[in-house]
Amino acid sequence: MRLFVGALGIVIVIVIVFLSQRSSLNKNEVTINNMSDFLLSSPEFKTNSFIPKRFTCDGENISPRLEIKNVPADAKSLVLIMDDPDATGVTWDHWLLWNIEPETQFIHEDDVPLGAFQGTTSFGEMRYGGPCPPEGSKPHRYMFKLYALDERLTLSRGATKSQIEKAMAGHILGQAVFTGLYERK
Fold first, then answer.
1. How many structural domains is the chain composed of?
2. Most exposed among 61, 86, 124, 127, judged by the fewest C-beta atoms under 10 Å?
3. What is the spatial distance between Cα 128 and Cα 131, in angstroms, rounded to a whole number?
4. Is 148:168 a contact under the CB 8 Å cutoff?
5. How far, in Å, CA of 172 to CA of 61, rounded?
6. Contact 179/141 with Cβ under 8 angstroms?
7. Does 67 share its domain with 141?
């Protein structure tokens, strides 16, 4: 019986040590993967609010100014994907940029950062295509997704979103998302 109690005590100690190490590992994983400081925003509109008409197909159809903060230190490049997950039947790609320098703090209105490449959107063009949902539909969400990568992408000019996403796989250090809304009445 003493032997059983002694062995049980050892098993309990081992389990406690294992669980405490596992708990600290999980805490480290959360810290490593927590990119809440990596931010994308715009002075033109707040997240989850309506995008001003001038940045849509009903206005000047130009890209808004975007602000980037707290890029992960090991980033070698950034990728920006703007899409509409509420489009009928498919996610509609409005703007694709890659190989943005990680030191970039602003993407200026109606501009592409020096050295960055533009991909082919769902409009079939290599440029920003502003929000343009069907008239009378509910407000659509426009997701500006910024990815920090551990390498620069080697893609041909005009690559599609699927090609960009395939090239990014396994290289994402962090992601920041900024959402705008738009509807046409």
1. 2
2. 124
3. 10
4. no
5. 30
6. yes
7. yes
3-class SS letters over 135-152 = CCCCCEEEEEEEEEECCC
Region 86-112: mean pLDDT is 97
Same domain for 30 and 67, yes or no, is no
Q: How far is CA 115 from CA 25, 152, 159, 160, 182, in A?
A: 39, 11, 15, 18, 30
108, pLDDT greater than 70 = yes
- Type and span of the H or E element at 118: strand 117-118
pLDDT value for 144? 98
Helices (H) and strands (E) in the chain, counts: 2, 9
Question: pLDDT grade, residue 185 (50/70/90)?
Answer: confident
Q: Evaluate if residue 171 carries a pLDDT over 80.
A: yes
Instruction: For the chain, give the percent of residues with pLDDT over 70.
Output: 81
Contact assessment for residue 172 and residue 147, using Cβ atoms and an 8 Å cutoff = yes
Same domain, 6 and 48: no
Do 143 and 58 lie in one domain? The reply is yes
